[in-house]
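__Protein archive entry__

___
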Amino acid sequence: MNQQNIKQITITCSDGESLAATVYVPTTALKGAVMIAPATGIKRQFYANFATYLADNGYGVITFDNRGIGESLIGPVAQSTASLQCWGEKDMPAVLECLQETFVQTKYHLVGHSAGGQLIGLMHNAADISSMFNFACSSGQLKNMKLSYLVQAHFFMNFFIPVSNTMFNHTKSQWVGMGEPLPKAVAKQWQQWCNGQGYVKTAFGKTVHQHCYDELALPSLWVNAVDDKIANNVNVADMMSVFPKLNGQTLTLTPSEHGLAEIGHMKFFSSKSQILWPLALNWLDKH
């Protein structure tokens, strides 16, 4: 893709917070527009090759850093007030509005990676999304993880996060290979939601007082991999159950069937996994 078709922009949320974002403009006729909502603590550059692929195939794309992450972090991370909830309630709606303003009179889709798909029900404008393609999107419920990973998951969620938050006023996720340093409230909600059933559902009536999980009925494809220790089939089903009206389909990938050594929780979007990307493209083309 010509670099002239890739633009760095700033998106302003309803509360005045600014997000760093990248727009990918297709050189061919516009087929639709996609917002790629990232996993927790993952910067938008991680999705650049995948976004370019979609743009090369006719889709306008916006990638973004959630507030408190990457280039959307203003000042020290220890001073960030960002939370998972405001990512869904403030950041994602603003990105969708920007997508609609940038690519007009077309269909709008969400490609969600882990948290990016989980949080759609917090968006006040989620009804404007025509379809959703999720990868590794599940409730992340700890008790449903295999014993071989359960100890590691409990250590991170129930020891490392609270200790790091207490000592540094944020979670040093980078120390354990879990993405960018996380604002305190992001990590705390992540811990709370993964210890309960249905992820964000644990906050209904507590911190989440308005949402549209009960109403969303858009077509959605939930893709995971057999070697994903977090988004296993039970946790995918647990997350989907939070959307009672959702028109959802599932697909579980086996790496060896696609000539890959691993897919796991992250590598669908790796350039080494390009053989998988037509799954997303074909879904978008159909919806």
Observations:
- The chain has a mean pLDDT of 97.
- The longest strand covers residues 6-12.
- The chain is about 30% helix and 20% strand.
